[in-house]
Amino acid sequence: YNELISDFKNSALYPFLTVWPRLFGTVQDIKDELNQIILPAAAQRILDNLVDMANQVAQTGQQVRIDVSTEPLQSYYTGLTFRGYVDGVSQYIVSGGRYDGLLSSFDGTPMPAVGMAFNIDVLTDVTLNGESNNQDNGKLRIALTKGRVEKDFIPLLESCGVDCEPLRNKARKLIIPLGDAIEVILAKGPDVTTYLKNGVVDLGIVGSDVLDEQDDTSYEMLDLQTGKCQFILASLAGYDPKEGRRQRIGTKYPTITKQYFGAQDVEIIKIEGSVELAPLVGLADAIVDITETGTTLRENNLEIFDWLQKISTRLVANPLALKQKRNTIFKLIDQLSEAINK
Are residues 193 and 298 in the same domain? Predict the structure, then answer.
């Protein structure tokens, strides 16, 4: 982000841009972020009105969070937008806002309006099942991918002052408290985002290969710079990626493979085990897989014909937790960033 805004260093907007991504949370959170920044008069008036409205809503007993960092929910919104949540459920149950030009696009009659819509699926679940059975014990709950991701993350967490001895000596436990502040839930990579979406955890530690395959990167917060590897296209010698006939491609990652080949006519064969076997036994013409060193490929007489996107471990956030536990989450992110950049 700092690289993106570097062109504006000489602009009066630059101090605002440096804190813009973090401009969400309670009224006090917003004031704290903007404490040392002088806003243009027009922007200050808008912010004052927003704070005043938030305070009025808070007087009704509702918990209110302001988010200045996001774009409108839909392109036709022209003013304030909002979303409503219930405790323990990460998806919103209602959303809406002001749209001054939408109705006039139908019959030409200008008519400012405010509207909202209910997320019936989520509302039904909450009505039938009640709020999430996840009891918030005040701890930051992290879904951590078991195995190599787990092993690489422990030193980073320890560098933040967290005692990870219970995690190192977990035996067969799947839920591991780390002191009074953090609780780790061990899960398979593809399940991490499921726990996030359902409000069971606040943060997830998962490989970007999982996020890319699930096409789910909207709340990615930090690249941990561990677990580095890369998607590749590989096959036996003599393979021609641009051969005209329809090709069969073996992979654990059908979404990534489909995106890579685009309009090219290929048959994608989903494989859960050793993908390298597919070209060797004639099941597929080539494979799309992940490699770190290429050793397994070479030992099986496979060659790399193309390199796809790079992979590393990412920290992702539950959107509701990001707003409710903003300061705790950003404190951990800042500590991890410092550890990564040492």
Answer: no
Q: What are phi and psi of 41, to 5 degrees?
A: -55, -40
**Which candidate, 163, 199, 196, places its Cα nearest to that of 181?**
163
Same domain, 221 and 257: no
**Dihedral pair phi/psi, residue 307, rounded to 5°:** -110, 130
User: Are 13 and 108 members of one domain?
Assistant: yes
pLDDT digits (tens, 9 = 90+) for 8-40: 888 878 888 888 888 888 888 888 888 878 888
250, β-bridge pairs: 269, 287
Count the domains in the chain.
3
Q: How far apart are the C-alpha atoms of 210 and 269, rounded to whole Å?
A: 18
Q: What is the pLDDT of residues 214-263, one digit of tens each?
A: 987 668 899 999 999 999 999 999 999 888 889 999 999 999 999 999 98
Has residue 135 been placed in a domain? no
Tell me how far CA of residue 279 lies from CA of 91, 153, 229, 257, 300, in angstroms: 43, 34, 21, 16, 10
pTM reported for the whole predicted model: 0.77
